[in-house]
Amino acid sequence: MLAAAVLDRLLGEPRRAHPLVAFGRMASWIERHLHANLRASGLLAWSLAVLPSVALLTILQRHSPAWLACCVDVIVLYAALGLRSLHEHAQSVAHALAAGKLDDARKAVGRMVSRDTAPLSASQVAAAATESVLENGNDAVFGALFWFAVLGAPGALLFRLANTLDAMWGYRTARYERFGWAAARIDDVLNFIPARLTAFTYALCGNFDSALRCWRTQAPQWDSPNAGPVMAAGAGALRVKLGGAAPYQGIWEARPELGEGATANADAIDRALRLLHRGVLLWLAVTLLVGLVLRGGLHA
């Protein structure tokens, strides 16, 4: 886990031939051939996209020498992590806002969120980027670390592929409401425990009382059962106001308010990144401690 985190820190995401990009193309091909307004069709498509790769990796890990299995562990988790990429995208927004370049900040945050960015004010751009850091802290970092700790490389792969399909198919639109149902529900299940661990991590690494208060009172109002705790606790930990109305496809949609305290700005983005990095260090330290205790118990 530490080696994968170091690789992500040094190299970031692969610039060419990213495996998730290739997976996305394959998933699109499967969708074109299997799409139907049926939940069963979506479940079949999800299974064909995810399960063969996870099964092959599981077999490889079980029948490989220890050194090769360890190398595969590191490579797969490195590919599943997106910490440095998230950091770079968020910093682009923060630097543009700090320099007073609102148009550049809108373009930069448009690479992080799905909402319309042209009508956003500076504080709304900062809020969107901060929300993305907090939510993707779970999706691109802590969720992968959790499932890697539980199931090794196959677990990290399962989580990231499922999360990718949720991002592609998990929408309540005419095309995906039934076809994407399986992708959305499976992602909810896989994210249930990691999301709450992420929320608690934010609380530990930020303003604890505010994080727990916002988590308890605001998370239930959010549509997503997992994004709600993560974003509410994160906003509380940072003591910043997030959420509120946001534009999607030309329409401003009402969303609950999250957090408390100051309005979001460039500094809030930087503080969210520092919160995330502190959380990763905490997880690595706890994992190392647990590993040493287990190793000592086995030797005893």
From TrEMBL:
UniProt-listed InterPro entries: Cobalamin_biosynth_CobD/CbiB (IPR004485)
Membrane topology summary: Multi-pass membrane protein
Pathway where this protein functions: Cofactor biosynthesis; adenosylcobalamin biosynthesis
Subcellular location: Cell membrane
Keywords assigned by UniProt, alphabetized: Cell membrane, Cobalamin biosynthesis, Membrane, Transmembrane, Transmembrane helix
A Pfam match: CobD_Cbib
Membrane-spanning residues: 43-60, 67-86, 140-162, 280-298
Function: Converts cobyric acid to cobinamide by the addition of aminopropanol on the F carboxylic group.
Family as reported in the entry's similarity comment: Belongs to the CobD/CbiB family.
Protein known as: Cobalamin biosynthesis protein CobD
Organism in which the protein naturally occurs: Dyella flagellata
Lineage of producing organism: Bacteria, Pseudomonadati, Pseudomonadota, Gammaproteobacteria, Lysobacterales
